[in-house]
Amino acid sequence: MYDFAYHRPASVAEARQLLADNEDAKLIAGGMTLFPTMKMRLASPSDLIDLGGIESLHGIRDAGDSVEIGAMTTHADIAASEVVRAGIPGLAELAGLIGDAQVRNRGTLGGSLSNCDPAADYPAAVLALNAVIRTDRREISADSYFLGMFETPLEPDEILESVRFPKVPRAAYAKFPNPASRYAVVGVMIAETARGVRAAVTGAAACVFRATAIEAALSKDFSERALEGLTIATPELNEDSFANAEYRAHLVVVMARRAVAAISSGQQPPG
Amino acid sequence: MLQQPGDAFLTATVSFELNGKPVSGAAENRTLLVDFLRDALGYTGTHVGCDTSQCGACVVHVNGRSVKACSMLAVQAEGMRVTTIEGVAPNRDELHPMQEAFREHHGLQCGFCTPGMIMSALDLVSRNPNPSEREITEWLEGNMCRCTGYLNIVKAVKAGSETMRAAS
């Protein structure tokens, strides 16, 4: 890693000031992506502003019809949260499938969403549940948050503070992990929301997306059967040494079926 | 602000509680916790395997939770409680029950991964005192062993958790 100045502000206001004062500064949350990137010298910020000391960014709050999760809450805390388990089926299980135990102890919800990795797990949940991303200056709906590969509407000096997930009666996440990295080759979150069935797919393309064909089929008939014979168009899908576009398209339907089966049986799919 | 030859590195004094005792030392901001433990403090029980948060040889506990010490800065441990493999045995002559279980069940061959395996296993048992074989296997996903395979390691963690449960 190249050298950098290190700051550990105690408030969001202080962090914002540090960002304003240092042009090449970067915020750091759990560091599970940024440190490897810095070790490879693909990033060399002048300053690291560590959000770990800001109390208000930590924690999970039951807000009645929604659950609000602070940006610095770790995957492990989300996976273990009774509030999350009770209010948002599938989300705790999704968090428990990220990386490995030690990554889950450091990695955070806000860090993952700010980075917006195309194979990260949370984007599927945020988009399927139509969650709201709250920053230091505005609220952004999930439908307008995921712009592309590593691309979000966050301004360079904007700080993601929390995510508000509306509670849903039924939802599940099914993931086909890369066996080495544990990132999603394909992950599908299906949720029955107040405005109908939503299906979000991560890992398969440059950015998380809603599978409208799956949503339409499940809206008519919420069953595994409804997805039989359904195909996903391949032109936009990722191709790499692990899975070509055709295989990923196939996995999208298989993961969707597993998620529906999990919802129908009341048991989350095996990791 | 890339480093030029002759530049002074930005350093900090880092203090935290290590295995129950206060420690302090100078570290560059970019120094990883694992390098600080090994090179500055001389606690070489924590190993560096891959340096990319894959292998788990560097697992330590920070405030009671297992983390990969290659993926955290020394300055980030300021004021925290750090436990390494050197801090788990009750005294110089006795092993911790989890260490004893690894010895008993041949859960190691070369031993390079063992400190990380044990620190990881102890975090699991602190959350789940009676883990199943499947839960152990899933938990150890972030710990690699290249000699023994994992069967005896899983057996050792199971046995270690049973001894710990019986003693508590």
Give structural notes.
- The complex is a heterodimer of chains A (271) and B (168).
- Chain A is an alpha+beta fold and 271 residues long.
- Chain A contains ten helices and twelve strands.
- Chain A has helices at residues 12-21, 34-39, 75-79, 82-87, 91-96, 101-106, 109-115, 122-128, 212-220, 245-265, and strands at 5-7, 25-28, 47-50, 60-62, 66-70, 132-135, 139-141, 160-166, 170-177, 184-193, 196-202, 209-210.
- A five-stranded antiparallel β-sheet of chain A has the order 4-5-8-6-7. Chain A has a four-stranded antiparallel β-sheet with strand order 9-10-11-12, with helices on both faces. A three-stranded parallel β-sheet of chain A has the order 1-3-2, covered by helices on one side.
- In chain A, a hairpin with a 6-residue loop joins strand 9 and strand 10 (184-193).
- The longest helix of chain A is centred in the C-terminal third of the chain and has 21 residues, at 245-265.
- Chain B is of the alpha+beta class and 168 residues long.
- Chain B has helices spanning 33-40, 97-104, 114-127, 133-139, 151-167, and strands spanning 11-18, 21-28, 59-62, 65-68, 81-83.
- Chain B has a five-stranded mixed β-sheet, with helices on both faces.
- The longest helix of chain B has 17 residues, at 151-167.
- Chain B is globular and about 55 Å long.
- The termini of chain B are far apart.
- Chains A and B meet through helix 2 and helix 6 of A and strand 4 and helix 3 of B.
Query: Residue share in helices of chain A?
Result: 25-40%
N→C terminal distance of chain A? 34 Å
Q: Taking strands numbered 1, 2, ... along the chain, how are they ordered across the largest sheet of chain A? A: 4-5-8-6-7
Structural class of chain B: alpha+beta
Q: If you average the pLDDT of chain A, what whole number results?
A: 96
Sheet of most strands of chain B = 5 strands, mixed
- Share of helical residues of chain B: 25-40%
Greatest chain-chain contact: A-B, 30 and 35 residues
Number of separate strands of chain A: 12
Global Rg of chain B: 17 Å
| Oligomerization category of the chains in this entry | heterodimer
- SSE ordering of chain A: EHEHEEEHHHHHHEEEEEEEHH
* Regions with little confidence, pLDDT below 50 for 5+ residues of chain A: none
Shape of chain A: globular
Order of helices and strands of chain B: EEHEEEHHHH
